[in-house]
């Protein structure tokens, strides 16, 4: 009888193929399957030398190839394709088997699938995986949800293939049912925000300061040696330094300026709206992508008047470049603060008990938002797991204090020059709103009571009140 495989992977496109190779490189015998056989054959043809693969050509053959309890990873397109695969697999599996969906599923889908499969005695683990093509092969950040028991079955496999930072694998059990996919969704929301902020920094360096892409690449390289050290800053420098082979122009100038999205950023904002969690930086990043794609609207608006502001004086250039670094760092703190607060809100809503310090720990390596900065976030939550917001952590407070004037100068200079900085400005507005003694929300409440008798609470007396606006304006307690 042939030896059974330790783990299986179905879905051998970019991510699944590399995850399968990663498992095999760690010494596991890996059964592989793809709906279209070409991908399976391709993997075997090109990579069979890397480890012990068992090619299979149907889901039932895949299931038969696995030792029990079976561990089977699904890495196919999220949405209906995942349901199709799960529905076909479920009757083939036995009680105690562990089915992992490592795609970018919506966490509500994961909750539904987990509950349905639990009725059959199957463990369903919705797991976030981040790192793209290279990360899947060399070591991703892995965010598994599902039961603790299922995690116990998977842990030796996942910690082996995950990225490693200072001897700690970038994988941790996030919490029950959809917790893993929820945290991956917020990871992607923060990714959108981070990318938008970097884009705005680039735009200012280009159009306010007047630098060329190759020069801006050098600035990002320098920033990448400091507190902004991160994968996204690193790849930004690489992109900006790249020249288009066809035209000899900077590569960034030949790419159509319409950013696309697969949907996880939008889900983050939709989820935040449901939870009442203000993730304004992520929302602006999603809308900025959507605005960029409205070619007709942009074309129709191109001739609209703008400000008369001019470029910076040459003597102000170096100082302004430093200001942009400060604004970028401060806005990045806000983006992460908002994302972590959303995780806190989701965790409370669904009873997941997510450990925020652990999330920061596993995001330090492997994933798209990996950054030196996450070490600070980990330390912040380790020293105070109940921290209301990262903004009040002592070390971030110091950075925000230092950034005050530069951050405001950047937003004001961008505004006066007509350069859109929705990420920088919404982060600053969020920061100012949180620290404000009084907000105009008081006036909004009064307006609501005026037109709709929606009532209000007073700052000085307990209770709920209404004023007779259309009568004698007397106030009574509701
Ligand atoms: N690409 C990335 O950087 C990242 C992707 N992800 C997520 O990982 C998952 C896989 O991503 P990626 O590798 O890019 O591949 P794709 O999202 O492009 O999905 C392609 C894979 O899905 C399979 N598939 C599609 N429809 C079906 C179906 N109805 N039944 C069975 N199989 C189906 C395809 O099979 P076939 O070859 O037969 O068409 C192929 O194996 C996705 O959920 C994605 O969101 C997560 C992190 C990063
Ligand atoms: O999950 C990922 C990284 O962790 C993907 O790279 C992400 O889905 C890309 O998203 P989009 O296409 O919406 O920019």
UniProtKB/TrEMBL annotation:
Which GO biological process entries does UniProt record here?
D-gluconate metabolic process; pentose-phosphate shunt
Which Enzyme Commission number(s) are on file for it? 1.1.1.44
What is the protein's given name? 6-phosphogluconate dehydrogenase, decarboxylating
Pathway terms, separated by semicolons: Carbohydrate degradation; pentose phosphate pathway; D-ribulose 5-phosphate from D-glucose 6-phosphate (oxidative stage): step 3/3
Cross-referenced SMART domains, in alphabetical order?
6PGD
Originating species: Halosaccharopolyspora lacisalsi
Enzyme class comes to oxidoreductase
Briefly state the protein's biological role.
Answer: Catalyzes the oxidative decarboxylation of 6-phosphogluconate to ribulose 5-phosphate and CO(2), with concomitant reduction of NADP to NADPH.
Task: Give the source's domain of life in one word.
Answer: Bacteria
Coiled coil (residue ranges): none
- One GO molecular-function entry: phosphogluconate dehydrogenase (decarboxylating) activity
């Amino acid at each position: 009888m042939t030896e059974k495989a330790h783990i299986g992977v179905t879905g051998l496109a970019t991510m699944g193929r590399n995850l399968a190779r990663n498992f095999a490189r760690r010494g596991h015998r890996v059964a592989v399957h793809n709906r279209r056989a070409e991908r399976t054959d391709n993997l075997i043809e090109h990579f069979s030398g890397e480890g012990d693969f068992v090619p299979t050509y149907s889901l039932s053959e895949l299931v038969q190839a696995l030792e029990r309890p079976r561990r089977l990873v699904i890495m196919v397109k999220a949405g209906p394709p995942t349901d199709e695969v799960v529905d076909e697999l479920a009757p083939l599996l036995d009680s105690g088997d562990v089915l992992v969906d490592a795609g970018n599923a919506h966490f509500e889908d994961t909750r539904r699938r987990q509950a349905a499969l639990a009725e059959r005695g199957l463990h369903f683990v919705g797991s976030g995986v981040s790192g793209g093509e290279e990360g899947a092969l060399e070591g991703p950040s892995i965010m598994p949800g599902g039961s603790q028991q299922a995690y116990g079955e998977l842990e030796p496999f996942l910690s082996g293939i995950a990225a490693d930072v200072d001897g700690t694998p970038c994988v941790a059990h996030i919490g029950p049912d959809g917790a893993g996919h929820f945290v991956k969704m917020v990871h992607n929301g923060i990714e959108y925000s981070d990318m938008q902020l970097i884009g705005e920094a680039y735009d200012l360096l280009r159009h306010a300061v007047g630098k060329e892409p190759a020069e801006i690449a050098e600035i990002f390289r320098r920033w990448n040696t400091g507190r902004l050290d991160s994968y996204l800053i690193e790849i930004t420098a690489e992109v900006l330094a790249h020249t288009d082979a066809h035209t000899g122009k900077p590569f960034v100038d030949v790419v159509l300026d319409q950013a696309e999205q697969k949907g996880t950023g939008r889900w983050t904002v939709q989820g935040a709206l449901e939870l009442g969690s203000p993730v304004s930086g992520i929302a602006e990043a999603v809308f900025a992508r959507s605005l960029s794609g409205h070619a007709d609207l942009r074309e129709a608006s191109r001739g609209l008047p703008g400000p008369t502001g001019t470029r910076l004086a040459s003597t102000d250039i170096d100082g302004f470049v430093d200001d942009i670094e400060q604004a970028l760092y401060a806005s990045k703190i806000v983006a992460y603060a908002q994302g972590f607060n959303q995780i806190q809100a989701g965790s409370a809503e669904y009873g997941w008990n997510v450990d925020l310090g652990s999330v920061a720990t596993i995001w330090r390596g492997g994933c798209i938002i990996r950054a030196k900065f996450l070490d600070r976030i980990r330390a912040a939550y380790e020293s105070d797991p109940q921290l209301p917001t990262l903004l009040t952590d002592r070390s971030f407070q110091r950075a925000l204090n230092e950034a005050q004037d530069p951050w405001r100068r950047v937003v004001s200079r961008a505004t006066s020059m007509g350069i859109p900085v929705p990420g920088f400005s919404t982060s600053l507005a969020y920061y100012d709103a949180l620290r404000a003694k009084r907000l105009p929300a008081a006036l909004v409440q009064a307006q609501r009571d005026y037109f709709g008798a929606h009532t209000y609470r007073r700052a000085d007396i307990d209770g709920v009140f209404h004023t007779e606006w259309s009568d004698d304006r007397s106030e009574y307690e509701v």
